Amino acid sequence: MKTKADKPPFILASSSPRRRELLTSLGLSFTILKPEIDENQRAGEPPLDYVRRLSIEKAIDVLMKIPQTGLVLAADTIVIHENIVLGKPVDANEARHMLHLLRGRKHQVCTAITLMSVVREPDLPTSLTRLTITDVTMRDYTDAEIDAYIATGDPFDKAGGYAIQHAEFSPVAHTEGSYSNVVGLPLETLGEMLGEIGWKI
Amino acid sequence: MKTKADKPPFILASSSPRRRELLTSLGLSFTILKPEIDENQRAGEPPLDYVRRLSIEKAIDVLMKIPQTGLVLAADTIVIHENIVLGKPVDANEARHMLHLLRGRKHQVCTAITLMSVVREPDLPTSLTRLTITDVTMRDYTDAEIDAYIATGDPFDKAGGYAIQHAEFSPVAHTEGSYSNVVGLPLETLGEMLGEIGWKI
Q1: Residue B69: CB partners within 8 Å, gap ≥ 6?
Q2: pTM over 0.90
Q3: In the 8-state DSSP scheme, what is residue A165?
Q4: CB contacts, 8 Å: B127 with chain A
Q5: DSSP annotation string for chain B
Q6: What does the alpha-carbon distance between residue B11 and residue B58 come to, in Å, rounded to a whole number?
Q7: Is residue B76 within 8 Å of B38, Cβ to Cβ?
Q8: What is the CATH number of domain A4-196?
């Protein structure tokens, strides 16, 4: 019988505290290794190709840094508004602009998850990437609410400049699809993928 | 009903004539786009990580060059002898050295196949990579046979310096696993992967 100590390590290739919390909620034990890649969108690259490529490149980068067994989970989340990717706002002006754009309207949040296995079981995928898309409709928040939210400093490490789970601002009126996807890691998709790649939680 | 014309294009990201022939034998119609990537093995990179990475990077490279629908198939094949990757020999001396190394002994041939879909169906993988490994045992060919084979020019575009299907040299005594894998594209694995990604042959 295999004991827990026999199990190869699970590595989260992300420095996002939200992803760490979501993964912990699955009862997984894991270590964290921050990927170091160029995260810029290429000229003409469609949003869904872009998010997929980043999650794959993060996984490859971290895989190069670990010992010879393990499973790497990498993810990238983008906010798409009318086919334009909204990244993390660099300053208050950009955050204000994004939150104006999104107000009262529908946009998409897409996370690409990549699993790459260093332990290679015959007949199982050695790399697997899936996209999860959630339609998010924002409520009609006021300019004053935007300014108060920006003053908390919360928008600056978040794609699209907001956190769905922020209790005071609470900017989202309605979602269609995975909620955890909007936080940063779609747990339903991840659960399916772990099964496909042969990882027992 | 969908007609054949509705079907998004299938793109083979490889310039290998063997892969083209094997794919044709499946009855697939496809176009060819040659990937342009750095094919060098990184320092300390294990052979199976290396072949996986190349197949993924080829797929990403070609995906950037195609219109907005389609399925990209990329593959990379390596020959592994005692955990060392044998690439394509650059000259007759290197080909001779490789064929001496392999003579009368067992080595592994590994192909990584990556499928990346530009058409994204919900609930299907958007990128999928599998490895196929075949154990190959060479026969005890003579030095004269090696020289005659090198003189045909056949070894120089082949990993490990040989083609299993070369009728005169016919260097392989025995295989365990997929034969088409040794030629360059394991058709059994490919068939399964096309099913997983939702592509009807």
Answers
A1: B8, B9, B118, B119
A2: no
A3: T
A4: 52, 56, 114, 127-129
A5: ---GGGSPPEEEE---HHHHHHHHHTT---EE-------PPPTT--HHHHHHHHHHHHHHHHHTTS-SS-EEEEEEEEEEETTEEE---SSHHHHHHHHHHHTTSEEEEEEEEEEEESS--TTS-SEEEEEEEEEEEE----HHHHHHHHHTTGGGGSGGG--TT-TTT--EEEEES-HHHHHT--HHHHHHHHHHTT---
A6: 12
A7: no
A8: 3.90.950.10
Contact B56 A56 (CB under 8 A): yes
**Residue B189, C-beta contacts closer than 8 angstroms, at least 6 positions apart:** B111, B113, B130, B132, B178, B181
User: In the structure encoding, which two tokens stand for residue B57, read together?
Assistant: 């990077």
Nearest-10 Cα torsion for A18, A24, A29, A31: 10
Q: Which of A64, A120, A129 faces B131 most closely, judged by CB atoms?
A: A120
Buried b (16+ CB within 10 A) or exposed e, A74-86: bbbbbbbbeeebb
Amino acid symbol at B11: I
ipTM, interface predicted TM-score of the complex: 0.82
Q: What is the DSSP string of A129-144?
A: EEEEEEEEEE----HH
Q: What is the pLDDT of residue B1?
A: 40
CA distance A184 to A182: 5
Q: How far apart, in whole angstroms, are the C-alpha atoms of residue A103 and residue A139?
A: 6
Q: Name the token pair of A55.
A: 């999650």
Q: Which pair of tokens denotes residue A45? A: 């690259």
- Residues of A designated catalytic: 76
- The residue in chain B having the minimum alpha-carbon distance to the alpha carbon of residue A124 is B130
Q: Name the token pair of A29.
A: 């034990």
The pLDDT tens digits of the residues spanning A66-96 come to: 876 789 999 999 999 999 999 999 999 999 9
CB atoms within 10 A of CB A92: 16
The tokens for A190 are: 């991840």
CB pairs under 8 A between A and B: 62
Three-class DSSP category at A22: helix
Nearest residue on chain A to B56, alpha-carbon basis: A56
A3-12, A174-183, B123-132 — which is least confidently predicted?
A3-12
Chunked into runs of 10 residues, chain B (201 residues) has average pLDDT values of 60 92 90 95 91 95 83 95 94 97 97 85 81 97 97 94 96 96 95 87 67
